[in-house]
Design a protein that fits this description.
By secondary structure, the chain is of the alpha/beta class. It is 44% helix and 17% strand. Helix 9 packs across helix 12. The radius of gyration is 23 Å and the shape is globular. The structure holds nicotinamide-adenine-dinucleotide (NAD).
Length: 414
């Protein structure tokens, strides 16, 4: 018998006593993020022609899975839009919030796809809602017949700037945040900040937390925009009520998405584990799940960032004055600096251990350097974490009265 390697049409075969083959393939990924204010205004063509890979024509059918709260607020306009354009829609409202971001919700979406009898090549499922809804629908679509296309219309700020623009889907499992999930890009995401008009202010702040994350690690300019206009665009729910507020809201959203996509595109499948977009996501998954439902996702992320800002000052990577600016912006956005959950014995160490398991045995912890830059470290110790938590506690409790027994904030829960 011969031995060696043969190639036939790119397939590599080791030839010997026991045959073995190595298959190598590259899958190209292309998806679109299209923004347009007033998506459900009848004369807005964005949903029909805005995405070259997912045109919508009269006579087409679509299954729409919509967050039930969004359905109550925007469902009539959405149905009227599709009716006006001759698109036959089946709308399935889903209860979608963090506590029900579980496998049961995935089954509900699969049931809806089965009942609809979806044509998996030509009938992308539409997911209309916040990050929970789009994560659940994306996960179900990625599993259904091993992959069915879907389209996202995020309706929260976190959805617009974060959950709606990347490729991750998933649900929680027991205390594991997003423990089950897939990498499955939507064919397109349509962004419409006017849908945020009905979003509670606390959830606007929640999205601003993820925008602040991008500013702290990547962009001093974006940070300055948040310093100068963050509180005002939050109060305005990003609606652009004046020319200045519209320009600020558009710039803040667009810059944040641009920075995020710049980070994601070269590393879509997270083969590189040093990801600066993981800033704020080292301790927050554990914090969020232990504090559920007290802390929203972005609130847990911002507390993680406040903690690591304290860590940065202890290491001399940020000045006290820079840290004070960071804490002032956090407060101005109505976000918390502190939760007593941070002081649960062993919680921060457990969180770090879980993150190390997630990051292939190393901490790979992004830490801020000044404002707008970062570095990765692997040597954070439990004692250092306790010192940082102590420092943050002093800043948080010294500067603001507790808004709730376990949560200290500028104006949380407005
Ligand atoms: P969410 O989906 O729970 O929505 C928040 C609340 O707002 C819900 O009660 C919802 O019903 C309601 N709502 C949604 N849109 C509304 C609107 N326009 N008007 C009024 N109410 C509205 O929360 P979220 O903050 O959008 O998303 C958080 C989730 O996103 C987390 O589970 C997180 O893990 C996930 N996430 C995923 C990614 C990713 O890359 N896939 C990135 C960031 C966050």
């Amino acid at each position: 018998m011969r031995s060696g390697t043969v190639f036939t049409q790119g397939l590599r075969q080791a030839v010997g006593e026991s045959p073995a083959w190595t298959v190598e393939a590259v899958r190209q990924v292309r998806y679109h993020v299209v923004s347009s204010v007033g998506l459900f205004t009848p004369d807005n063509p964005a949903l029909l022609t805005g995405c070259p890979d997912a045109p919508l024509r009269p006579g087409d059918r679509r299954l729409i899975i919509v967050d039930q709260n969004v359905d109550a607020l925007h469902g009539d306009a959405m149905r009227a839009y599709f009716a006006a354009h001759g698109v036959d829609v089946t709308v399935v409202p889903l209860h979608a919030e963090e506590t029900v971001k579980q496998w049961d919700a995935v089954e509900a979406v699969v049931d809806a796809m089965n009942s609809f009898g979806i044509d998996r090549r030509r009938e992308p499922v539409l997911a209309v809602g916040g990050g929970v809804l789009t994560d659940v629908v994306g996960f179900a679509a990625s599993l259904y017949r091993r992959g069915t296309p879907y389209i996202r219309i995020p309706t929260t700020l976190i959805g617009l700037v974060d959950a709606g623009v990347g490729v991750k889907t998933g649900v929680n499992y027991q205390l594991g945040k997003n423990r089950l999930g897939t990498y499955a890009p939507a064919t397109a995401t349509f962004l419409d900040r006017s849908l945020l008009s009905t979003l509670p202010l606390r959830h606007i702040g929640n999205g601003l937390a993820e925008i602040l994350k991008m500013a702290l690690i990547r962009s001093n300019d974006l940070f300055r925009l948040l310093e100068s206009h963050g509180a005002a665009v939050r109060a305005d729910r990003m609606q652009g009520s004046t020319g200045e507020l519209a320009r600020a809201a558009d710039a803040i959203i667009a810059e944040s998405i641009h920075l995020m996509l710049e980070e994601l595109q070269p590393n879509l499948w997270e083969s590189a584990l040093e990801r600066c977009v993981d800033y704020g996501h080292t301790f927050s998954p554990t914090l969020e799940m232990h504090a559920l439902p007290e802390l929203l996702h972005g609130e847990a992320v911002v507390i993680d960032m406040a903690l690591t800002t304290a860590l940065g000052t202890l290491r001399g990577d940020l000045t006290e004055a820079e840290a004070d600016r960071v804490y002032a912006v956090i407060r101005s956005l109505g976000l918390p600096l502190w939760t007593d959950v941070l002081e649960r014995p062993g919680l921060l160490e457990d969180a770090l251990r879980d993150t190390v398991r997630h990051r292939d045995g190393q901490q790979r912890l992004p830490l801020p350097v000044g404002i707008g830059r970062h570095r990765f470290v692997n040597d954070v110790t439990p004692a250092e974490l306790r010192a940082a938590a102590g420092l943050l506690r002093g800043r948080a409790l010294g500067a603001a009265a507790p808004a709730a027994p376990a949560l200290v904030a500028g104006q949380v829960g407005v």
